Every structure is written in structure tokens, then in C-alpha cells.
Amino acid sequence: MSADGISRRKFVRDSTIVTAGLAAGLGAVGKTLAQDSAAVKRTRSYNPDMEYRRLGKTDLWVSAVCMGGHWKRIDKMVPGVFKGGGWLSADLNSDGFRKNRREVIGRCLDVGINLIDACTREEVMAYSEALRGKRDKMFFAFSWYQEEMRNAKFRTAKALLQTLDKGMKQAKLEYIDLWRIVMLERSSRHTAGEVEEMIKALDTARKQGKVRFTGCSSHDRPHIKKMMETYPDVMQVVVTPYTASSKELPKDSIFEAARKHDVGLLGIKPFASASLFKGDSSPDSPHAEEDNKRARMAVRYILCNPAMTAPIPGLINAQQVDNMAKAVRERRKLDRTEAKQLEAAMDEAWAKLPADYEWLKDWKYV
């Protein structure tokens, strides 16, 4: 580890301690979305045209739309990049792939999008490379899901910490802003002991200064709520589904728990795994204009829930980045016509949802 790396590690450890103390002492003070506050202006890649939201008790100010790590339709931009059956088979070392990821990340920084969520080995490697030389311009959320809680061999604190060290070493990351371990989709299937081991790993990594903040990814709403209530000091951020049809339950909602315990929420699947769109995301698609509008309406709808910090869509070109920035700038509340259009579009999305995403229909009430 370089001298700079040692100082960085010390900075992360010390800043974590300070942040924890501030959170305990300040409580709910200063949690409004004060766009002109000094804290917001100091955030990474600040752009006055972007809205920033406080990511729960981390006190990080992140863009109202952050970037998800998936690149499911990147083959429309880089033909032939997939070498197997799925998007994770992308050739990470191809010139076209690397150029595309650098361009998308660069455009995100230009418009003020300042968090990337990398949740697979491939994503961590791709985005750590795309951010080389720009690491401190974007918050980096990390998960190496292949060797985390979904794999039965990695359900101890020791094994999880080894995964963290392995990922950081391979990706040449000196520190991580957010370690959000991927659990089983139905995380309540984990034993109490396995959850305790995960909490121990997250807490240890933070105390060691390897990560600044901690959390998890789960699709199990009652269990998410239970973890927020049981481990409020460690469950600082949760990554979970939230679509353009999701609505908050009148009681016992995860948002109720998130507000009470000051947990940041990042929403995956904002476009229902691309089922919201009529076209295939090709730049010359005849449906491009309509799909851009649908994407913006979906984001505006999601952002009407202040407890949802930010949706994190996957983006495959600079134009999609610009479209997300435009959505943030547009009037927030949908008018009656737009609301009907979005409802009809989501009805179409549910009708053509892939079989392996049928579970998303359970997220209409959260």
C-alpha cells in the first residue's frame, strides 16, 4: 500500500468515526434538501443543474439519479461485445466496451451524477477501470455478489472480508464508499447467525477504514424493515427494487422504517428491467423519443417519494445520461395526462415482463 493509500485509509477510518458522532448528536437536524447549502456544493462532481439528496445517515449528498452498474443492452452500442448468453459475458477488455463505459461515466460526471453502484465482479472491474484517475469524483458502491451471501460458501464474516480484500486488490481500489452486500433475494431465508456474520463483516471493514459506509441489497421487504430496526448503526443504506408503479403502504412500510432510522435507499429496476420501453435502446430506434419520455416520467414519479434517495438505472450511452439529467430538471409532479400515460406504459410493462422478473409485480405496494 502506498503512503497515499495509508493516509487515505486513515482518512476513511477517521471520517467514519466523525460521521457516526455527528449522526448521533444532530439527529434530524439539517436533513432538508437545501440545494444551496455548503454541504451540497462540496459533494463530488457538483453541478448546480443537478438535484442532490442526502443518503440517510451517511450524510453523503448524492445525485437524484445515480448510475446502476448493469449494461444489459450495451450490445446495441458495441455489437458483438457479449461472448456468451448474457450481459455479464461482455468482453471487459474490448476497446469498444472500455470506450463506452468511459464515455458514459464521463458524461455522468459532466451532468453531476456522482454515484455508481457496482454489484458484480464484472461491474467492479469495469467501473474501477473507467474511473481510473477520477476515483474521487464519484462515490463507489461495491458488491462482489458472486462471493457474498448468495453463495453458501461466503456466509461468514471471515469469508466476506476475504471477498472484500480480493475485490479491492483486483480492482486496485484503495477504499470503498459503500459496501452493500448482496443477500438472497428473500433475505429472510438466511439464518439469524448468517445475518450476524454479515453485520460483523460490514462493521469490521468500516472500523478498519476499508469502507466508509455499509448496507445490503435485498428484495425481502419485511426482512429489510427488521434489519433496519435491529442493526441501525450498520444498515446505513439499502439497495432494493422500486418501480414507476410502486406505492407506499399506509403502515408497516419499509419507508416508515427508513425514515425512522435515517436509512438511505437506492432503487433498482426503475424501468422494470427495460420492460417499460417499446424499443430496444438502439440509437436509431423509431421508439427512441417515446422511450426517452417514458424514462423521464418514471424517474419523476419515483422522485416524488422523498424517502427513496435515488433510482439507479443502468445507462448505455451519453444520450441516456442526458435524458436522466433532464428528468431531474423537469417539473416533478406528473400532470393528469402524464400520469395516465405512465400508468398505461407500466400496464404494458407488466404484460411483457420476462418470466424471471415476475417477482417485480410484488413491488406495487412497498
Question: Describe it for me?
Answer:
With 366 residues, this protein is of the alpha/beta class. The protein has a single domain (37-353), classed as TIM Barrel (Alpha-Beta Barrel), CATH 3.20.20. 40% of the residues lie in helices and 11% in strands. The strands form two sheets. An eight-stranded parallel β-sheet has the order 3-4-5-6-7-8-9-10. Strands 1-2 form a two-stranded antiparallel sheet. Strand 8 (237-241), helix 8 and strand 9 (264-268) form a beta-alpha-beta unit.
Give the SSE map.
Elements: H1 3-26, H2 38-41, E1 52-54, E2 61-63, E3 67-68, H3 95-111, E4 115-118, H4 121-130, E5 139-142, H5 157-171, E6 176-182, H6 192-207, E7 211-217, H7 221-230, E8 237-241, H8 254-261, E9 264-268, H9 288-303, E10 310-311, H10 318-329, H11 336-351
Parallel strand pairs: 3-4, 4-5, 5-6, 6-7, 7-8, 8-9, 9-10
Antiparallel strand pairs: 1-2
Helix pairs in contact: 3-4, 3-10, 5-6, 7-8, 9-10
Name the CATH superfamily classification: NADP-dependent oxidoreductase domain
Largest sheet at a glance?
8 strands, parallel
| Uncertain runs | 1-6, 17-31
Give me the CATH fold name: TIM Barrel
Strand order of the largest sheet: 3-4-5-6-7-8-9-10
Class by alpha and beta content: alpha/beta
Taking all Cα atoms into account, the compactness measure Rg is 19 Å
